[in-house]
Specification:
It is built from eleven helices and 19 strands. By secondary structure, the protein is an alpha/beta fold.
Amino acid sequence: MDSHAQACVDLGTIAGNVAALVRHVAPAAVMAVVKAGGYGHGAVPAARAAVRGGAGWLGVAHVAEALELRAAGIGTPLLCLMAIGTGAHREAIAASVDLSAGSVDMVRRLAAAAAQAGQPARVHLKADTGLSRGGATAADWPSVVAAALDAQAAGRVSVVGLWSHFASADEPGNPSVARQLAAFGEAVAVAEKAGATPEVRHIANTAGALLVPEAHLDLVRIGGGIYGLSTLPGGPPSWLRPAMTLRARLAMVKRVPAGTGVSYGHRYVTSSETTLGLLPVGYADGVPRAAAGRPLLFARGRRWPIAGTVCMDQLVIDFGDAPVAAGEEVVLFGPGDGGEPTAQEWGDTLGTISYEIVTGIGARVPRSYA
């Protein structure tokens, strides 16, 4: 490891997670969601690994993310879930990227872009079944379907998918899940009665794929799960394995006397003579400032707390009398095999989710692949 820190991604683990998920949700297909740089793991390598594992679809949020995959030579069916990037819709249509529409206005914009591209836009119509983010409400849904079918009749649009998204599938037993699934069934019925003949219907995310088998339908969209993460209480099932390990090496160690204030604000003061180690990662690299004082670092076979305030580029560890030396490796998180924290533990400890931890790893931390 030549750099100050490194996020090591096991692509075989991603492929293995996808293969396990494919078996779990069969006969539904799996869409591997590789938005946000593959949840911080690297979009193109993660996408290729997911396809090797059996993913029949890929998903992203922004048009630029879709075009990045196409530019890398990845031809797998690909859905842009938000279709953000108005100026690039024509280019996305020409690259055979499926696009989402949840309003009459978006249907019309995609139809216009299709006219420029010289081929129909492959469109997935999104119904808002209770998340209240994107998608058409039940009141607006018939007009969105009608606009899409009119555009289809004109040769501008092909309605290939109907979809929605759960609000609380990661809360076992939450009654909103059944309500949303029923609402989606009603939306599908409205669209099909109007003449839509979708290739795929999809509503399940990672949590839905794991906990709600009746929501699998034709396709499940799995994001965190392909990286061995989930938002379920207690984390993912044991057969999904975290794919990323974040490491750094100590840049400096020094002995200091008792009563030494450490880092900004001296929120930590040494209780005795001790050895401090400087780790060259900070909140600009994705280590939350709220991690100060938490035993979330692993070195020399045990856990260590962060001593004092996390800085932009560095943090300090109090090693006591341990014979630590500059250059020694510290693991921030990994799969947990050797006692190191996991991203799930970081999230649980800091009151957030593992997804925020891994996607927050900064761009200056290089990714390496195995």
